[in-house]
Design brief:
The longest helix has 22 residues. Helices cover 50% and strands 11% of the residues. It has 408 residues and is of the alpha+beta class. The protein contains 20 helices and nine strands. A hairpin with a 5-residue loop joins strand 7 and strand 8.
Length: 408
């Protein structure tokens, strides 16, 4: 079988699959599942073009990783062919553990376990199936390989994951503020003391990258209508589980049934193989099939929530710097009880508060190192003459109040 395939990517053009092992991993059911998981959750309800998938993103990150390795080799850094293949596999599989609708339902399907944990578990399963050939990739992914800079290319403040999703998400949403100079940043990469650095002449490209990331968070990832849609989906799953655990009949696909009708602890998920194997068959279609059926469920709360999502009747969302007024929340709750004939608990599905956070750059979390012309290393916030970077390093916390639009 010919495994030297070329994929036509809308962002980068033609992408080659570098090795037969990588081709076989792309063909594996674990990876093919990513075709049916949207990269941006419910964002398509705001930006209609945002229908790209985790499959697209993983292939794009794989392509950028190949560019990064070629750049570092050209600058005299020895990277073996096995290390190159391993780091490409690590970035290719970095999101293989994402659940339906990406971040929208994280820790709702399985509580207390992140998609990174599940990715690591699935990579271990693949390593068994491929006779140990993923061992180095797993070590790079987990940060236990002796060459730290390879892990930083997979997971850091300036990794191939972020570089691809900013370009890709801006492309499919049409939000031009997210476009970054990924080619230039990659060409400016270097290694010093086993850490990824950016050469001094790349400072402005890195500044643009950080600003683009901040803007994409407010305009796309934390857009108030995106928040409304993702909160609604989360409330639907919460209500359906509440009904299922109380013995109420709730339609599900077999895969969703496994996680909905009995709570699964973190320890059980990690130690009992069948949970992981069932998770690896779960995607967006399981959730949406259930939502469409639940829109006519006899439980009025679940039926209203699902009907609202199907018809894009989303929560009203107020985003503020201070916590919402408790009297306003109480007033809206009373209105929900009266309007829909609900209990106080049921009304909490139609009136509730939460918080959101945005920090474009956290210098304490694998800082971005600038390699100065004299060979010294400076943090980007110190090396830059852009005072805005100090502001970007601060975590912005905002409060949200979500409520049914018909209550006002």
């Amino acid at each position: 079988m010919n495994k030297k395939k070329i994929i036509n990517d809308p962002v980068y053009g033609f992408i080659s699959i570098p090795t037969e092992l990588i081709f076989d991993l792309i063909e594996h059911p674990y990876f093919q599942r990513l075709r049916y998981i949207k990269q941006l959750g419910m964002t398509h309800l705001v930006y209609p073009g945002a229908l790209h998938t985790r499959f697209h993103h993983a292939l794009g990150a794989m392509y950028l990783m190949g560019m990064a390795i070629e750049t570092l080799r050209n600058k005299g850094h020895e990277i073996s062919r096995s290390e190159e293949e391993a780091v490409i596999i690590a970035i290719l599989l970095h999101d293989v553990g994402h659940g339906p609708f990406s971040h929208a339902l994280e820790e709702i399907i399985v509580e207390g376990i992140s998609h990174e944990d599940i990715s690591s578990m699935l990579m271990s399963k693949l390593n068994e199936q491929f006779d140990g050939r993923l061992a180095m990739a797993i070590n790079i992914f987990n940060g236990t390989y002796q060459r730290e800079f390879l892990h930083q290319l997979v997971s850091s403040q300036l990794d191939m994951d972020r570089m691809d999703y900013l370009n890709r998400d801006s492309f499919f949403t049409g939000v031009s503020e997210g476009v970054i100079s990924s080619d230039r940043i990659i060409k400016m990469l270097n290694v010093k003391d086993d850490h990824i650095t950016v050469e001094e002449k790349g400072i402005y490209s890195v500044e643009k990258f950080l600003i683009a990331r901040r803007l994409m968070y407010w305009q796309v990832y934390l857009h108030k209508t995106v928040i409304a849609a993702e909160q609604l989906l989360a409330k639907i799953l919460k209500r359906s589980r509440e009904l299922a655990l109380s013995g109420e009949s709730v339609f599900t696909t077999p895969a969703l049934n496994h996680f909905l009708k009995k709570p699964i602890s973190r320890d059980a998920f990690i130690n009992e193989d069948h949970h992981l194997e069932t998770f690896a068959t779960l995607d967006d279609t399981d959730i949406m099939a259930a939502v469409k059926v639940w829109a006519t469920h006899r439980d009025p709360v679940l039926a209203r929530l699902c009907s609202n999502l199907v018809h894009r009747v989303l929560y009203k969302v107020d985003i503020t710097n201070e916590a919402p007024d408790k009297k306003l929340i109480a007033s809206l709750t009373v209105r929900a009880v009266e309007k829909y004939g609900l209990t106080g608990h049921e009304a909490s599905y139609f009136v509730f508060e939460d918080t959101i956070r945005n920090n474009a750059y956290n210098s304490g979390d694998g800082r971005i190192r600038i390699l100065m012309k004299n060979g010294s290393i400076k943090d980007i916030a110190e090396a830059s003459d852009n005072s805005n970077l100090e502001a970007l390093a601060k975590t912005v916390k905002k409060y949200i109040l979500c409520y049914d639009k018909k209550l006002v």
